[in-house]
Amino acid sequence: MGPLALxxxxxxxxxxxxxxxxxxxxxNLVEWYEFGVYGSLATVIAANFFxxxxxxxxxxxxxxxxxxxxAFFFRPVGAVVFGRxxxxxxxxxxLVVVVGLMTLATVTIGLLPTRAAIGAGAPWLLTLLRALQxxxxxxxxxxxxxxxxxxxPVGRRGLYGAWQSFTVALGLxxxxxxxxxxxSALPAEALYAWGWRIPFLLALPLGAVALWLRTALDEPPxxxxxxxxxxxxxxxxxxxxxxxxxxRIMGWSAAGYTFLVVLPSYLQATLGAxxxxxxxxxxxANVGFAASxxxxxxxxxxxxxxxxxxxxxxxxxVLALPLLHVLQSPGAPPWFRAGAVLxxxxxxxxxxxxxxxxxxxxxxxxVRCTGLGLAYALAGAVFSGCAGLVITALIAxxxxxxVPAYYAAxxxxxxxxxxxxxxxxxxxxxxx
Length: 432
Fold this sequence. Notes:
Distance between the termini: 35 Å
Strand content: under 5%
Low-confidence stretches: 1-15, 226-232
Largest sheet: none
Helix content: over 70%
Radius of gyration: 21 Å
Order of helices and strands: HHHHHHHHHHHHHHHHHHHHH
Structural class: mainly alpha
Shape: globular
Oligomer: single chain
């Protein structure tokens, strides 16, 4: 039999895990790039879409974060719809659809007319597109994490799954970095008038690459026989596992959005920082986040998911308030402030690195996309999507500028309780 007669699977098998990581990761990058852009340019978006005559900047910012939060509440719907598609028809078709929908919605935001052009219809159109992004993002996590962890050999699932979180960090960092570069290169008038559109339009080539990679992807290899006493499959047991998963990642969700997405507008609106200073601080926080994710995932393959994730959650509980006080102190040296935001991001990375593999290990293959996607989406809807809205509203009502620290630390304290029950050897068991 000649070389041309070889089956495609025989030819492609050696590079399949790498392609799975790349195809799964690049869609996450597109998704979180947009969220990074939206969070970094929240004050600009507020001025263009949500501020009307007689309203204040704070009111417009709250409305902007309300739109941000609404998209998160569509994520559970997307997790169920696209999760079922991924569990029944395969990981590839679900991942192709979600990245196409995300790219289309993001690019369309960059083409939207503003409130000054069409009036009250502008914020509604933006909110509709955010809802479509929420649907696609809800299906992205479950499909991508299932794909990457199902390709991973036993003993490396933490590292493989960590690539999902790592590309989240890259997406947020790329989004924040693009916004920061535009803020530095353009006069404020140009940024507010048309420059804000550029980052959203850049999602088109990124999404095209992701779509090309995913259409050429193979389905994961079939799993081994399910281990004795395997993961729950009944509706009641599945729901219980989803609730437990939410508890284990709620600290990751709340602290991640507080430190990595909400920070720019908080520094501007509450502490009086310039847009450039706020975006630089956010970029540094995302650098700390990205730097700790892959080492945390690899470490969890050696010592278990529980100690690594507990370390990150406890770190936020203890250090959130002191780190925020450093940012609030006008006399703090710049290098000290930089260290504070780097450390804050790194603590989130300790939870985000092992988190995807931990969730994948909680659900069997036939419900994995739906189960882990729903746990992640619900945690995101409640503790991430509402972070900006809750923090901004509470600061406005109470005048307490330490609200972000209380929010992140409180959620992480509850996560610690859920993480204490995490099995110590789940990372060593085959993925059924």
